[in-house]
Amino acid sequence: MTQKTIETRSWDATRHLRTEDDMVAYLDAALEDGDPAVIMVALDDIARTKGTSQIARTAGLGRESGS
User: Fold this and answer.
1) Which of 7, 11, 36, 48 is least surrounded by Cβ atoms within 10 Å, i.e. has the fewest?
2) DSSP 10-23
3) Residue-wise over 31-58: b if at least 16 C-beta within 10 A, else e?
4) pLDDT 10s per residue in the chain (67 long)?
5) Which residue from 18, 7, 9, 24 is spatially nearest to 49, judged by alpha carbons?
């Protein structure tokens, strides 16, 4: 029997949290899950997103400018 190889890519939530509404929906979903680890990851992702956005604004760039 041959074994299939599955190609994966890392996924970073911060690349998809573009608006406050996105962040609220993301945190709501984590809170609905109820797992403290999931909630902590969501809070960390949101904090990193806000940090990235602030740095981009200060530099006069959009978040999408630096892949």
Assistant:
1) 7
2) ---GGGT--SHHHH
3) eeeeeeeeeeebeebbeebeeeeeeeee
4) 788 999 998 989 999 999 999 999 999 999 999 999 999 999 999 989 988 777 677 777 765 555 4
5) 18
